[in-house]
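Course assignment 3, question 2. Fill in each field.
Student: A.L.
Task: Predict the tertiary structure for the chain below.
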Amino acid sequence: MAAISSGPGQEEGVAPYVTFPSNSTFFYDVPQEEVSPMCNVNFGNNNGSNATSSLTSPVKYLADYNFLSESSIQPLLDTWFGEGEAFLDEDVIPTFREAHPDLPSAASFQLVSFSDGSAIVCVRGTKTYFDFLVDARLWYAASLFQLVQSAVPFGFAFDALIDFCVNRLSELEASSVKKVSYYVETTAFVNYLRKSGKYTTVSITGHSLGGGLALITGAQTQTLAIAISAPSAVMGRSAVTPEISLEDIKQRSYSVIPQRDIISHLGGEHMNSAGIKCRAGANDFFACHYAYRSLCELMYTCGNVKRPVYCECVSMGYPEPTSIDGSGTSLEFSCEVI
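Answer field:
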């Protein structure tokens, strides 16, 4: 299978780091006794094989797919999950928006359905300056008071006061924030999917601020949400409508937090999370926030469940994965011939 990227001669619209070797039989085969306990932690109570609530779930692998062009996603799904297993549903979102013309339609998300009847909503993170401004309104109050708390000696002693201040400021802005917030549409969309009865289970995922939106929607709709490098919904839970409780967040959300990633620490402490290593240089300020680096770390730490490794994982310092076809071909060679 040919690699998929946006390099010369490749399909336009796919990020250059999403590249598979020409021979997609390279995997990180981690012996079960060496797998980190965090990889098999279970949370929530979704039941479908593709919505399983652990870090070996396919949900996390789709966290950053929404940055790709629609024409590029299906070939990636075929490479990653196998042909006939995962499908980009291109019709359901336009149908949903036609049925809900009163909702804002600025949010960017996709729906991937699986052969077992489950489905995963993939929410895009910040891509434009407008995205940043809209999303930042949900977390700026919490971030502001976090900054104040960190600057005050024994700031932890003011947790109750900080929570009160954040909640009051969030309440004052709740109505205006709702008018422009992307979570309004993603929450309505997940409810629409669940009420349709078409899917055995529905999950939601995203990276960065898209992951933050996924966490909010997951809590509001009682749906499993897995986010990578996302801000927490804990401190700003009163800023959303309807409000979400700590119990909602605890029961339905899980966050992957890379080392030295600032965004993951906005909005308060995550209630369910797994910390992962970041092997980027200490001076590379933003590298630990990149979704593809986190996915390589998860594949290397947990084993990648027979899904091919990106070529770029090795260039980022990870060991060369094992080829299961017995050809003796190296990953480096398979990546060079594409």
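Instructor remarks: Residues 90 and 111 are 8 Å apart (CA to CA). The radius of gyration is 20 Å.
Grade: pending
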